[in-house]
Amino acid sequence: MKRVLVCEDEDVIRGFVIYNLKRAGYEVVDVSSGEAALETYAREKGAFDIAVLDIMMPGLDGISVCRALRAQSKELGIILLTAKAQAADREEGLQSGADDYITKPFSPSELVKRVGALMRRKMKEHA
Description:
The protein is of the alpha/beta class.
């Protein structure tokens, strides 16, 4: 099963992301804070293929979570979700270790396709 960790503090967006990823056949574990994302990743011993992280969250933000996850795993696929659409924001996100960067609002099919593309790329690297 392809596992995705979703970290989004807005309930409506998190629910929307979970629904669409599950519908596409992914096993989804969701959390609502950066701290919970790191705790869940550790508790699950890194058993995720991809993490989808919101950038702007209270407490530990998505960029910090991205850096922490990347320090623990070079293989984990990381996609950042954000309302921050400036080039400098995108560059910071990618420099923090993210594989992809999606700006809000986004279409569910785009998210699912990007998760699928990243999943294929990660699986190909390990083949």
